[in-house]
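Q: Convert this sequence to structure tokens.
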Amino acid sequence: MPAAPAHLPVGGPLRNSRPLSETSAAVIRSAVPAQYDRLSLCRDWQRAWPRRIQERIAGSTGVDIPRRGKTNVSFAFDHAIIAVGALEPAIEHFRALGFSAFYGGQHADGKTHNGLVVFEDGGYLELLAPVDVDFMASLDTVDLSSFLDFVAKGDGWAGYALQVEDIDAAAQAMRDRQLSVTGPTANGRTRPDGTELAWRTIAIDNTRTPFFITDETPRVLRVPDDADKVTHANGVTGVDSMIVAVQNLGKSSDYYRAMLGVEPRNGPPIADAGTASFTLAGFTLTLAAPSVQDSPLYDYLKQRGEVPYEIHLRTNQLQPAGLLDVERTHEARIVLV
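A:
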């Protein structure tokens, strides 16, 4: 009989299940793809393994796992993207601001790589750059999947993603509300240690802001929760809220209502703008539309389009730093609160 994977608690209880025998653990090795053998680093198998893998384990071994009740189509903040022309300087600039930024790896299309700033609450900022400047010289204006068109506009916010557990159910719910949904589409990234990551995304009406994401490989591999990566010298612990620039508040509020299945409420006051807010899991998403043409928000929309305008990060500091130096954040407005 082959040895059981080291990460399986053979003879000991899994949470909410009966103990695994040596035989059951050996069966799991054949039921679970090879890349999951690396999960000795994960603290909780039910959190770490995708639901479809849990189902295969249950079917092969008889191990009980908690069953979902109703389908989960609630959304949480996943990450926001900052497009940068060169990755290494951007990582160093964020480190100088007190963030524990680190290199993430290269995306599956080979065009871009990223740096990550990961928070205790599981959200993160992605610093996205071309792997080779030659990609910019031959930029495909039709293919928008790489976000390199935002690099061409200059450094700054490029988009954001919301996390959803059941992406198929989310896509169907959006279609039921008469939205045109693209996907789910497979994507991935290779970490510096060679670990292959996989996820699926959906987009609405061929836009990228927001897009929706669910992990196929364990989320802790894509978004590490190691203490040295989620602890920041500036005291940041997570994402509090984000302001997204939009052209028309009424139309965008209806559009987001159909995407999220959540009713908007009056948003916070912003100079020369109308606002509406949506409350998601531990996070507030605010839409802001300029009410006059002579305003920073109006100029921003002309330059970058309907993308994040400003993000507010929670800190444990008694006197947060407020708006960070936009030169070091590469023109992305980041406020510590």
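Residues 1-21, 33-53, 55-71 have pLDDT under 50 and may be disordered.
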